[in-house]
Amino acid sequence: MQSSNQIMKNRLLINSSIDTVHILSLQVYAFKGHDETTESRNQGNFLEMIKLIAAYNDKVAKVVLENAP
Q1: Fewer beta carbons within 10 angstroms: which end of the chain, N or C?
Q2: Angle formed by the axes of helices 45-56 and 4-26, to 10°?
Q3: CA-based nearest residue to 45, from 26, 62, 21, 67
């Protein structure tokens, strides 16, 4: 059984992903970029939006991208 702390982290990860998908879908934006490598300056709308959310929210930053399980 997962700890309540892990459950909260998982919910935050899922909710930030769902919110990003929701916004991109409403705006009819592409999710993926041409080059999603770590060296790329533009990794696509989905990853860039997740980075933006993480930049403004430390709790999100701790559970997304490289920190995701």
Answers
A1: N
A2: 130
A3: 21
